[in-house]
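User: We ran a pulldown and think these components assemble together. Before we commit to crystallization trials, I'd like a predicted model of the whole complex to look at. Sequences follow.
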Amino acid sequence: MPFNILVAASLLYVGFLFLVAFAVERRAAAGAAGWLRSPLVYTLSLSVYCTAWTFYGAVGYAARSGLEFLTIYLGPTLVFVGWWWVLRKLVRIGRRERVTSIADLISNRYGKSNLLGVIVTLLCVVAATPYIALQLQSVTLSFGVFVKDAPEGFTGDGGTTALWVAAGLALFTILFGTRNLDANEQHTGIVTAIAVEAVVKLVALLAVGVFVVWGLADGPADIIARIDASAIADWNLQPSRWAGLIFVSGAAVICLPRMFQVMVVENVDERHLATAAWAFPLYLMLMSLFVVPIAVIGLERMPEGANPDMFVLTLPLAEGQGGLAMLAFLGGFSSATSMVIVEAIALATMVSNHVVTPLWLRLRPRSDAAQAVSGDLRRLVLVSRRLSIVGVLALGYAYYRLSGGSGALAAIGLIAFVGVAQILPAMLGGIFWRGATRAGAVAGLLTGAAVWTFVLFLPSFGEGGVLPAAVFADGPWGIGWLRPGALFGVQGMDPLVHAIFWSLVLNTSAFLIVSLVTFPGPVERLQGAAFVNVFDEGVGPRPWARGQAEPEALLMMAQRILGDDAAQAFFEEGARAQGKEGMLPDPSPGFVAGLERRLSGAVGAATAHAMIGQIAGRAAVSVEDLMAVANEAAQIMEHSATLEAQQGELTRTARALREANEKLMQLSVQKDAFLSQISHELRTPMTSIRAFSEILMEGDLPPGMAEKHARIIHVEAKRLTRLLDDLLLLSVLENGTVQLTLDVVPLRDIIDGALIAAGQVRPERAFAVHRDLAAEDIFLRTDADRLKQVFINLISNARKYCDAGQPELRIAVRLRGGRVLIDVIDNGTGIPQDKQRLIFEKFTRLTDQTRAGGAGLGLAICREVMASLGGTVAYLPGQGGAAFRVTVPLRLEQAA
Amino acid sequence: MRRPLFLPRARYRRRRLRDAARLLPVFGAFLFLLPIMWSPATTMLGDTAPDGIYLFAVWAGLIVIAGLLSRHLRSDENGPSDEDD
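Assistant: Here's a predicted model for the assembly, 981 residues in total across the polymer chains.
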């Protein structure tokens, strides 16, 4: 196989991938992605899990450790088969919160904390760098296999090849990975290219496998026989490694940045996950189906000391199958490139969103919101992302150069797995446990990362590499129980299992304990509820307060991040949804929250939150903010209580006024009625007096007649006098100029006198009078005559108006405090409620049914008399008839 | 609002299907870890091939069951999510 053809083929292959990505992007831009967004493509894109480590390394792994390599695939199989538990929730959360990376997920969950974003980003970068180096190494090695055919100019120096590969990958990734800023627009081109590469590597490995099983051996039975005969058969399953590796690979398939990228971020339809749940395990199974046969035949046929990591390539080559070797080479190439591309995109997104952009925002003066969004932020983010891609690949290349490309592939891969598995407690805790707090997540992640670094990562550089040999022998600072190989004195454990065990145990413990004793902030609690209850609609983070953000400033900022077209379309849509013309919707909480989610799809949750906060005037919801809100609410409540009180007072006043008005109107009517009444009352006696006096003046009357006429005149004149007396008395009483004659008298005498006096009114009616003589045995110091007048009035009224067939009168006396209550109650129909307030007014006559002979002044006089006696008289409703209560002080002191 | 005590047959089936989907990885984990129980105890002769065949058989079985379950689970993805069953 000429080396030139190999180079040409790989260039052609890369060109083909470029074309695929390019064409797909074009189609997607035209909105015709169609089948490109099918579950098949989704499943195939998940195959970035299978890197060159799988493609080449699995065979080497099998050659060294038998079936143990399977654990790397059994873990993910269990996770995908159990998609209903974790993956479904992750994907739903990822889509709903527009998560851009695993760092974004953790940061978003724990109150949009950027500190957590930075921690996860750093952990991922540290863990991924050797992994990327591993990919570069495998490509270099695979080139190296062909190097003996290299032309003179090609030195075969691994570094040069790796450099070219790294540069080419960086270019490809930048071209297709940073075209769109909004991660939610997704990298359709890249995903499709990855899917194509997935097919290539599967076909390549299957082809080599088929060639080995049916070409070099005689079918499955023969292979089984050869396995039994080979060195691999001596392998013994180590239980702790077996379980530990299944666990850690299951954790890694969720936590690896590149897996999170294709599984959650690039997911276009949640239902694709249902297909991937069985199709991805199937892919993994097919990828590992021929690993052991290839390893066995490789060990059999290849010369002693041949690198088993390269059997996939060297075996066909040694057998003279140039085409097959070429295919295998492309398969390995695909595995490496797809992993590097996706990993670079994922890491670059994290670095730019959680390190570069926040740093840039931090360096800006926070006070000036306009300045914070000035400058082309979109450009900044894109540039930072591109630089991050270059940086990530440069790191990988540097690691490769520094480490000299040594070490078995599998070891490096497992170290990275354990590293990213440190994210697992914070992640699972975050999506299943509302009690998980930011402090807990920080503590867990830092503990896990520290243990992993000390126990697994640094020792991987070899004794005396980074850690001095003394640390291995005696522990740091001579503390024996902190030796990296035997933490807390636990010895005899496999180093990898030891690292998995201690890092995850300490990580989880720190996470749980700190979560239990700390209190989450408001945003954390809201995000926690939103994440844990993602399947319940309507649970969401606290919306932005209305009206704090200027829509124009928001649009300016959105344009800088999303690009003019996308931002304007988003705003127009928002305005239309609110039923408004133009491009500026009201900054309603819903709209601003939607915008934040959209922005977080581009720059990550923490950054988006901070940026909106700068414009909306609230960088983050702190407890102080909530306290302020609560105070405000309290003030508003207080204010509204005052208002309510005022309103109550107003209502009462209004009611009093209304009542007064009503009374006035009725009084006015009464007065009119009275005026006509009194003119009638005055006119009637006057008319008869005039008429009879005229008759008397004519003289010639029989003597009896003259006397009779004179008596009529006398009676009528008396009536007039009485009316005028009443009016006079009333005006005297009202003016308060009345003279009282105070004396001590028994109440019984007063009532006796009143009954006798009132007996003259309608004497034909027989009244049954009920009295309580014992109770009446009270001595009052008062003006007896005037009090008697009141009783006379009340009793006369009863005699006049009581309409019962057998009228009764009850007089009840009670002593209460220093006052005497005297109730005068008859058994008539009483006084209707609407009239009760009027009866004490002057000139009031309720009915004309009985010619009372009075002018309607009686009760008015009673009221005034009682006022002058320091007491009251009031109507007593609900006594089964007309009832009046007279209240009089026991001892009236003469006012000076 | 109170949930009904008994569910219609179709919804009952769907919930048990979800239970099955949740249980599948547990069974899978058990079967994948089973070699721990027997492998070290057997003869000095290697048992790589039988173990491998066993593991691949379990693997294939899981894929088939997961495929059957996901076909039914996918159809009710759009339905109302009644999680706390």
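The beta strands of chain A are 743-746, 768-771, 779-782, 808-816, 819-826, 872-875, 883-889. That may be worth checking against your pulldown data before setting up trials.

User: Thanks, that helps.
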